[in-house]
Amino acid sequence: MILSRLRYFSPLMLGMVLGCTTIPMQEMSDARQAVQAAREANAAQLAPVPMESAETLLNKAKQALDAGAYDQARSEALAARREAIKARSEALKSAPAP
After folding, report:
1. Phi/psi at 35 (nearest 5 deg)?
2. pTM for this structure?
3. b or e along 41-59 (b: 16 or more beta carbons within 10 Å of the residue's beta carbon)?
4. Three-state SS at 92
5. What whole-number distance in Å separates Cα of residue 52 and Cα of residue 58?
């Protein structure tokens, strides 16, 4: 009787574990690094729109992380990284040649 119940319990537990959201540490780190790289490329002056978007998204990701909204934090961090990469790329294209 107990063994037959355990057979159903294990998949249920597996589903619960897989459904748990993990802290998006790597995504946050990647976003921070991308924003920093954009700053170093002078994106605030050379590509202000995507740079401001990247910084806003990173701040939203930090707030979501602090609130324990890990899915939202992950989504915002990924979006911040994309915008920062775009900002850096635009800044490097429009930078004056040395």
Report:
1. -65, -40
2. 0.79
3. bbbeebbeebbebbbebbe
4. helix
5. 10
Distance in angstroms (rounded) separating the CA atoms of residues 16 and 3: 20
Give the CA distances from residue 39 to residues 5, 58, 73, 79, 97, in Å, rounded to whole numbers and listed in that order: 57, 13, 21, 17, 18
With H, G, I as helix, E, B as strand and everything else as coil, classify residue 1. Answer: coil
Contact between 51 and 43 under an 8 Å Cβ cutoff? The reply is yes
- pLDDT tens string, the chain, 98 residues long: the values are 555 554 555 554 444 444 568 999 999 999 999 999 999 999 999 999 999 999 999 999 999 999 999 999 999 999 999 999 999 999 999 978 77
Rg (CA), the chain: 20
Alpha-helical segments (H) within the chain:
2-19, 25-40, 43-46, 48-66, 70-94
